[in-house]
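Chapter review. Work through the record for Phosphate transport system permease protein PstA before attempting the end-of-chapter questions.
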Amino acid sequence: MTTTATPSVDIANALTTGRLPRWTPWVLLGGSWVVLLVVFGFVQGATGGEYNIAAAIFLGTILFDILLFVVTYLVEGARQARDRLVTSLVVTAFIIALLPLVSLLFTVLVNGLPRFDIDFFSQSMRNVVGEGGGALHAIVGTLLITGTATLISVPIGLLTAIYLVEYGRGPLARAITFFVDVMTGIPSIVAGLFAFAFFALILDDPGIRFGFGGAIALSLLMIPVVVRSSEEMLKLVPNELREASYALGVPKWLTIVKIVIPTSIAGITTGVTLAISRVIGETAPLLIIAGFTASMNYDVFRDQMMALPVFVYSQYSSPGVEVQPYLDRAWAGALTLIVIVMVLNLVARLIARIFSPKLGR
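Structure tokens for Phosphate transport system permease protein PstA:
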């Protein structure tokens, strides 16, 4: 018996034909941005105006919406085109929300990079008039003041949050919660005035200016943020973990130390980082109590101490005869602040990844 070979016939699957590759939206979005960025570059070169990166990205995103709808309509049909259009509009709304941040970062980078050099990070402003100089004294002052404020705020805030979640009941807990809410809305200059009045009365020095006072003022702003963020993270720890620990005879304090805090350490670290980012750019309280100086000062308990926000403010508001060097230093100081905050966030994520509980099976 002989069998005849049947010729193979390719059968098209209606569910997979007429589909755009998954990378198509990303290519269209990137291409639209590149086209508008180039167009705006030519316009800037022809007119001599400033480069508007926010407008270029916005118009590029609108072009992406139109191109994605047209391409999808031609390949996949009207139904899929409408679906992709709605999705692209959601992406557009997200990009519009990010435009102020993009514009800010672009402006700071463009204006801050000319003085983002070794001299800026290795010299102070002592005996410097005009060009030259740096912000080493301000960077050191910011790290010392903010670090001292963190050492004060984190233990107080974390212990307060533990009390409110694990022990707090009755009028005292309600009073602490109320005052934490009130402190959350305190203007930063009020914190500076409080620290100045407190130390002026205690030390009997109406003209007192020193770094530790600035740390106290910043800690008043940090503590409510640490309390609130830590409290919410501690509440997310399942009660079953606590009950299992109690069932094994572990005392409550050891359960908090070994079970509750390690479980919520990732969120607590993030909250502490947010609190540091909240205060590291404050200018008003440090102007009042920490003062400003052009020299190095490593002692937070003695003499005036410069911080980066105050350095940026003083360089921008009080330029000398040659204005441009002062503006360049101000922009470089602002860029340094952004870099410090970014590094802090990266360190916080690393700490959270290392110390968070491993949920392996």
